[in-house]
């Protein structure tokens, strides 16, 4: 079974039940909330990023209900003129926004279901564009 939008592709392996999601967006780390006189807020650029993710990811066809193994690969924008060999942003912060959106879209009920999480980040290879590749698998 496959669900697709112009920016995200969702597939489910009928044999294993694994859900694979590819989201064609440049990964951004979740920043710390800003504290102001009247409460906390996220920067406008991050709010726009979350809104874009929300528009790209279709609602889940079926919610996963058991314990989950989740793998997130963030293929990040290359850095021009940098001495660093890895993308900016902590892996946990890169995964947070997209995982929160998958919860919102009904792919699983709660973050508590995730018992095994693997997150990697890298730069694109050759003609590859920045994106997320996510795998969700119920484990026994």
TrEMBL record:
GO BP annotations listed: DNA recombination; DNA repair
Molecular function GO terms recorded: magnesium ion binding
Pfam families, per the entry: RusA (PF05866)
InterPro entries associated with the record: Endonuclease_RusA-like (IPR008822), RusA-like_sf (IPR036614)
Protein name per its UniProtKB record: Uncharacterized protein
Biological classification of the source: Bacteria, Pseudomonadati, Pseudomonadota, Betaproteobacteria, Burkholderiales
